[in-house]
Design brief:
The protein is an alpha+beta fold and about 210 residues long. The chain is about 25% helix and about 35% strand. The protein has four helices and twelve strands, in the order βαβββαβββββββαβα.
Length: about 210
């Protein structure tokens, strides 16, 4: 979904405040200086595209544009039950990872945002379909946590994610990559991505009301 005008201004203001309260950077100057983030649903049942990947930036006239796309920030049921490592399947730990992705080939196949700097992950190794967040020690390193697409219009995560941040629809992912290329032409090929839990946003909003 592409949002412009007053609603985009309001969303940018809202998320800038949330980012500031989380201690994250928010990029507010220059055209196509992309803010990229994921919002993780509290639902622990796996295999759903029930999260969001979002992007906010100012256009050439300084006006805010905001996108939100259905996605998963979690591994699919297949990889939870069939981990590729003895210590379990990766689940990205919430936080902001500065300059951790750049344009590259996902599995040597197509252009995506490919992990280039360390991130933190939990390891889920009990081989069930439930997402176990925060139940293991966080590990920091290069794990191939890419930002890429599933199929044309995927309804289940299945094998599409073993911990990557994955768009459910290829057309939405194409929108992101077009923005990424515009941004890279000015700011270089290094992209910051934040993962935020929806529950944390709700708590911050509740604290503001109290």
């Amino acid at each position: 979904m592409r949002i412009t005008g007053y609603h985009a201004d309001a969303l940018a203001l809202f998320w800038a405040d949330i980012f500031g309260r989380l201690g994250h950077a928010w990029f507010d100057s220059g055209a196509y200086n992309l803010n990229l983030w994921g919002v993780r649903s509290p639902e622990q049942e796996s295999n759903k595209f029930d999260d969001w990947i979002c992007c906010a930036y100012r256009d050439e006239r300084g006006r805010w544009v905001v996108y939100s796309w259905p996605a998963t920030t979690d591994p699919g049921a297949y990889w939870l039950q069939n981990p590729g490592r003895v210590d379990g399947t990766a689940i990205l730990v919430p936080g902001q990872y500065r300059g951790a992705w750049s344009i590259g080939l996902h599995r040597g196949s197509y252009e995506a945002l490919v992990q280039r700097r360390p991130v933190q992950v939990w390891r889920d190794n009990n081989k069930d379909k439930t997402l176990d967040w925060g139940r293991s020690k966080a590990h920091k390193g290069l794990f191939g946590i890419n930002i890429h697409k599933a199929g044309a219009k995927s309804s289940q995560v299945d094998r599409w994610s073993a911990g990557c941040q994955v768009f459910s629809q290829a057309a939405h992912f194409a929108d992101l990559m077009a923005l990424v290329h515009k941004s890279a032409a000015t700011y270089g090929d290094a992209f910051t991505y934040a993962l935020v839990e929806a529950s944390a946003v709700e708590e911050l909003c509740q604290g503001s009301r109290d």
